[in-house]
Design a protein that fits this description.
Two copies of one chain form a homodimer. Chain A has two domains: 243 residues, Alkaline Phosphatase, subunit A; 140 residues, Alpha-Beta Plaits, CATH 3.30.70. The two termini of chain A are 17 Å apart. The longest helix of chain A has 20 residues. In chain A, helix 10 runs parallel beside helix 12. The first copy, chain A, is 33% helix and 19% strand. The interface between A and B is medium-sized, with 39 and 28 residues.
Chain lengths: 401, 401
């Protein structure tokens, strides 16, 4: 039996509140052998107190050795097997600029490029135009029309934009038109089935029209398109768990991921303090709250160990504002590790603490990677975190008699 | 998504070197309650040093409670789910005598038996002939011909031999001809499908011919055949992981298993020292090195606790020769446990250490069963060891964006 069907069968409704606080890229590594990780280094009295009363473990975002992107990392935490539910690159790019993709959409990543008089690419990134120029060029392409479809052309930055085609029966098994080399023309799009060929035809029309409207705009005088992705079919948290779920995130991509699984995306402000204030305000209106904190990832990506320590400490200082609301279940975890030492996402398991009145507390007294190894949740696949949350919230009935 | 497809999707090539050192049957048990295992008893300063810098865990070869043979034990370590990839007994027997089985082969285990004038079996093992006689009898059977096929008859020892039939369209769903009792004639072979019936017909012809050429050779005057197995279809390590892989093993069966997954089987000499010298010589030519050490298993099978301790200590003294080559990932593990106390393979999880610059070191300071229980790899299914090796070697890209 599928995990989601099991949840649908066992779920019970009550008035409990679940908070999932995701510190992006939370897990780390010591910089030197024998040293401490960022989280172990940080002074985190509030997280430590939560740890003493809660139950800890290490979350495997996907499988041993697999480093997730933000999409799979979050899908796992939301209870979706990231190997089953895949979000295409075009959709993620659209989510990342806060474009409201929907079920009739195919989203595509676009690049401006430079072509010569013969139509051959001389620069695959069009000399990296400014973002201002990118916005201007997108405005030109917004004039393009394709009968029977809606088109959206949205700037990302520099040479990058997003194209969304909205229509019925559009497939996404379409080849990239970027030939990955110069000296040749952009490729034609082709689809492997009827639905995808419909998309490919629209794309070829769009690319030709783009060359027409950009004709005088060298070096940004042509486009390549790649990462074709249809809006994924995902049952919502409401469907599966019966939860009214709210997302309180600052960055567009995480808002978008939350919207994909049916969360209400709330206006969160710009700081963690603003997010806490939003949480307080809407506390009575939802059952489940996803709070996203970006900076533990971005400082790790920068390779800035002390900064990562500092942003974790800042998160710790805000934790009492969550606890003051008396959630029934409070989980603090990450979507993956981002060790400053590696300056990138990694496969290392992610420290996790779950607090609830019904948790079986373990002997862990500090929130850190080495400590969580001895926690009561053990090493678990992230996709099981939601069933643990539901259980601790008293929202799951007995399986079988 | 299938783990191998995921590896194909994510793998990246680089110049890293991975060494997988398999101490066969490494795991053990104390002889007395409260005592130490063989590995815990052994003085292993080099393994302990590796453990302090690496990350440890316990490998489950198949599933909890399942004792693997050498085939499934090694397939798991090579990244193949041993419940999906099965190697038939005939093929294993052929590998064990270093017979070079190939994709058109069906391999079969043969026994000499004794039949009376009425053709009924009086001794299922033909009075356990000497191995010299076995060789001689096989030579007689090598005269047998079957039109359209190649036949190979190879001695194993005493009453045992291997028969390999090479041809097109041969199936292996064929019943054993050994009736498992005396007083009856050997059974006829039958196949459950056309391809297997083709094999069965050949087998019946072979068995009749064998009785003819062995007629005057009582007690070795007939044969039974069992364990029909076709050469398994297995994607190679090169296909899946992009690794140029070399096997440095002494015993034929392990060489054969390595060849099945596409490793180059190198001339390894006879001692561990010879194996280390081979490793050094070919270091630049491969990405992945499988080193097999047999004696931790054979001493365990003998129930010789002190001997197992000693061979583990001998392995430890050679470890610096591997480390001197500066591998990027060095793993020491076993394919299963072979406790001296049980004198057999067992299901107990296998102590494992993985060393790499990017590993998240744990608090384990000695290499042993009790210590590995607290290691950062936790208890993991052996089939995930290759993805962990690939990740730590920097050979896996991010999953999803």
């Amino acid at each position: 039996m599928n995990l989601h069907d099991l949840m649908r069968e066992l779920r019970e409704d009550n008035k409990s509140k679940i908070v999932l606080l995701v510190a992006d890229g939370l897990g780390g590594l010591p910089m030197e052998p024998g040293g401490k990780t960022e989280l172990e280094t940080a002074r985190t009295p509030n997280l430590d107190a939560l740890t003493r009363e809660g139950v800890c473990g290490l979350s495997l975002p996907v499988l041993p050795g697999i480093t997730p992107g933000s999409g799979p990392g979050h899908l796992g935490l939301f209870g979706y097997d990231p190997l089953v539910y895949r979000i295409g690159r075009g959709i993620l790019e659209a989510l990342g600029i806060n474009f409201d993709v929907g079920p009739r959409d195919v989203a595509v990543r676009g690049n401006f490029c430079t072509v010569d008089a013969a139509g051959k690419i001389t620069d695959r990134r069009a000399g990296r135009p400014t973002t201002e120029r990118c916005v201007e060029m997108c405005r030109l392409m917004q004039q393009i029309r394709i009968p029977g479809m809606e088109l959206f052309v949205e700037p990302v930055r520099e040479h990058r934009f997003v194209l969304v085609i909205r229509g019925d029966g559009l497939g996404d098994s379409v080849n990239d038109t970027d030939p990955q080399q110069t000296g040749v023309a952009p490729l034609s799009a082709g689809g492997v089935d009827t639905a995808s060929q419909k998309t490919a035809d629209a794309i070829n029309h769009f690319a030709a029209e783009a060359e027409r409207v950009l004709k005088e705009q060298a070096p940004t005088n042509a486009v390549t398109l790649r990462g074709f992705a249809r809006y994924p079919k995902i049952d919502t948290l409401k469907d599966i768990y019966g939860l009214r779920a709210a997302a309180i995130a600052v960055y567009p991509m995480y808002k978008g991921l939350a919207r994909l699984v049916g969360m209400d995306v709330l206006d969160a402000g710009a700081t963690l303090g603003d997010q806490m204030e939003t949480l307080r305000k809407v506390w009575d209106q939802y059952d489940f709250f996803f709070l996203h904190y970006k900076y533990s990832d971005s400082t790790g990506e920068d390779g800035n160990f002390p900064a990562k320590v500092e942003v974790i400490e800042r998160l710790d200082t805000e934790l009492p504002r969550v606890r003051a609301l008396n959630p029934d279940v409070l989980i603090v975890t990450g979507d993956h590790s981002t060790p400053s030492k590696m300056k990138s996402h990694s496969w290392h398991p992610v420290p996790t603490v779950l607090w609830a009145k019904t948790c079986r507390t373990d002997a862990v007294t500090e929130f850190g990677e080495a400590q969580c190894l001895h926690g009561g949740l053990g090493r678990f696949e992230a996709k099981y975190l939601m069933s643990l949350a539901m259980a601790h919230a008293g929202r799951l009935g007995k399986y079988g008699a």
